[in-house]
Amino acid sequence: MSNLEERPDEVTCAAGSTTVEVVAPRLVPLGGPRGMTVRRTLPQRGRSLIGAWCFLDHYGPDDVASTGGMVVAPHPHTGLQTASWLFTGEVQHRDSLGTAAMVRPGELNLMTAGRGISHSEVSPPGTTTLHGAQLWVALPDGARFVDPAFDHHAPAPRTGDGWVARVFLGSLLGETSPVSTHTPLLGAELLLEPGARLDLDVDPSFEHGVLVDTGSVHAAGEAVEAHELAYVPPGAGVLALHAGAEGARLLVLGGPPFGEAIVMWWNFVGRDHDEVVAHRAAWQAQVEAGAGADGSPDHAVGGPFGVVPGESLAPIPAPDLPRVRLRERR
Questions:
Q1: pLDDT tens digit string along 95-121?
Q2: What are the tens digits of pLDDT across the range 229-275?
Q3: Three-state SS across 151-189?
Q4: What secondary structure, in 3-state letters, does 25-59 show?
Q5: Backbone phi and psi for residue 160, each to the nearest 5 degrees, phi listed first
Q6: What does pTM read for this prediction?
Q7: Residues 209 and 182: beta-carbon distance below 8 Å
Q8: 250 vs 229: CA distance, rounded Å
Q9: CA 217: distance to chain centroid?
Q10: Which superfamily does CATH assign the domain made up of 16-255 to?
């Protein structure tokens, strides 16, 4: 998913906390007055990363007839991976590697941008409701310029007393995802029946996030309501979950503290101002080179981010940079 804010904020990221935090989402409208509104819990001023997870948009259930659904034209990414996870609906993913894959509920699509990729995301006509999460993973310094890649995984559900789990990244509850990552990560969906209790054996070196989609839960002793994100610092080998009277659906995310400061602006994750400016300039040059005399897209013209085969939507131009130098904070 692209960050479609017309004036995206500069985000300087650093980690560090020793107590459980509960983060409320901020509402971010995407794509104009009829577009989708997402609930963004990462990044925020008080919490930038959970492990290498650096961006979390949670949306829906949205009536596509009212919002127009997801119509995200080709746009660039660098220095990150995008993880798409749906609860309801479908989204057609296309990228400059030539990938054409449908995002479906309970199935992971993980796109590695590395040195640069472009992609589009469009909900098909048969989708009437969209509900899911879009997450980004910051790539560590040694992997920031790897070749782009795409992985798909449909995890089998694992069941227990009052719970169902789908582990899409990392290991949990005896399940391990086959999808490799550049830093240790955990990503799983959990369905908890009303009043269910579940003690998760987790890596004590990881920090964890618990995003509640529906219902409510106590996570590590803290009450977390629908749409909120609980941050649990490293140190404990058990993450205790207790669902409320209506049950809960949630995402559990984790990873060791990232240990690197990053600058994130628009769809780029970099390390300093000049790097992000260079990425923006390269994408904008590609967009302008691909426009014909009448302004229509010429998909035969490529660039460092590649073109998306079979996509008729014109690429999204880069927004203007802030008037001040982007800051990197450690």
A1: 999 999 999 999 999 999 999 999 999
A2: 999 999 999 999 999 999 999 999 999 999 999 999 999 999 999 99
A3: EEECCCCEEECCEEEEEEECEECCEECCCCCCCCCEEEE
A4: CEEEECCCCCCCEEEEEECECCECCECCEEEEEEE
A5: -150, -165
A6: 0.91
A7: no
A8: 10
A9: 22
A10: Jelly Rolls (2.60.120.10)
